[in-house]
Write a structure and sequence with these properties.
Elements (H helix, E strand, L loop, with lengths): L2 H13 L2 H11 L1 H19 L6 E10 L2 E11 L2 E9 L3 E3 L6 E6 L2 E6 L1 H16 L6 E8 L3 E2 L7 E3 L3 H7 L7 H14 L5 H18 L14 E7 L6 E6 L9 E5 L8 E3 L1
Parallel strand pairs: 3-7, 4-8, 7-9
Antiparallel strand pairs: 1-2, 2-3, 4-5, 5-6, 10-11, 11-12, 12-13
Amino acid sequence: MSLSMMFGPLLDALWFLVPVFILGAILKAPWFKGMMGEWIINSNIKNNLDPEKFHLLKNVTIPCEGGTTQIDHIIVSSYGIFVLETKNMKGWIFGNAHQKSWTQQIFKHKTKFQNPLHQNYKHVKTLQVLLGLADEQLHSLVVFVGGSEFKNEMPENVTTRRYFLTFIRSKQDVVLSERDVKNIVLKIESGRLEPSLKTHFEHVRHVKSIVNEKQKPVVPIQSAPVSRSVETGTLCPKCGSEMILRETKKDTNHGQKFWGCSQFPKCRSVVNI
């Protein structure tokens, strides 16, 4: 009996499983999870926010110094520009505003990922430079979808699919005129790169090059001490602005250092060291 006769029926049966394996691989792929997360947020915005007041721009890639930055969602309104970073993740999420990396835990398996507040900070600053706006006219917002649960107290601008619209609606101060809103939408549309697979893959290559550069060993150098400095990536837990290393001048605690928000006195957030 030939091999084809012996194993033919088995191979025919297994052939039908190939599409199942391919579908399973697609569903687990990071790019697919990201796409589904963005689709969920898009649907929530379109179904729950007035399109006449809240103008949605999605998957926006903007040139910046040294490459490009890619923003999941931008909502332009009279109450400011909301810059959204979406994370489609399950399990427990551990982290705070100041950590460079957060942790996802599913049962006993733990995975590190970049602090999304730091990631979105670049998005916000890129838009700010492009549009020439003040800090209070932009709102950074990180949204987790996929059934994840926070195991630490998070800043108000880190939320879930269920509550992110509440954060947007909580901003009631008018900081942009209707004319400003129209001009901003046009400026973003004209400044963005054309959405395409080529644009996406070029951005992915840029991000990988940054990651590889950060993983290279750094040779420490000595520098003169300073009494006031800014640590890159240290963000205010309340407003998301940079935190500045300050030193108290009071007699009782003279010389004691602490992190203070760069937007003081508008924001008086303080983090002890």
